[in-house]
Design goal:
By secondary structure, this protein is an alpha/beta fold. The chain has 9 helices and 11 strands. Strand 2 (41-42) and strand 3 (45-46) form a beta hairpin. Helix 5 runs parallel beside helix 9 (230-244). The chain starts with 17 loop residues before the first strand and ends with a helix. It binds zinc ion. The site of zinc ion has 8 residues, from loops.
Amino acid sequence: MGLGGSGPTHNYSRPMRIVVLTGAGISAESGVPTFRDSDGLWEGHHVEEVATPEGYDADPVLVHEFYDARRRALQKVEPNPAHDALARLEQAVGEDLVVVTQNIDDLHERAGSHHVVHMHGELLSALCRACGSRHCWDGDLSGRPACPGCGVRELRPDVVWFGEMPHEMERIYRAIDDADLFVSVGTSGAVYPAAGFVIEARAHGVQTLELNLEPSEGTAFFDEARHGRAGVLVPAWVNELLTRL
Ligand SMILES: [Zn+2]
């Protein structure tokens, strides 16, 4: 099965550069609950309560306890074959693969991926509202611990909330513009700016492939779309690619 579509044929005389965008669908197959699973509620909470700066200002204790629970729940989930396959692809092509994830869990890293851009931040990081520093964090924040950098007790979850700017957008767009292939895995195609990455890729002549449980809202923009579980589709695609490289 080829990549098909109307994109340019890849020139095999140089390494193939690949950007893979991953979303909630890949984590969901590891059992990570997402707010999209439950009709706008995320573990029983409205996203406005737990995923906006206004929600945090209104009830920081609730928000801390919510993310503390999500952080602890990471210990109960494992990477699945889709995460494993992307780590295997990185082993083969090194820095020519960049994984851009919308997910705040650490499942890509635990599978063995190193070049991961967390555009929506990370559960295992704390951001100081006083000094702006970031710290690896695997404990709770609800007890208001002091910032290791400045000592002020203003650490918040280092996740990008609705209304906040995603991380590393310049780096992401540069990687997409320079890529040969853009692959979207387990994303709804509904949340911008990630939903616009396929348009950016097409504008730069980058081949595009969607791997998703069902057609995403942006599925028509992809050169090729395959639908099914990420844990099946991603390993199959990686195997296919590795035989061609
Ligand atoms: Zn600080």
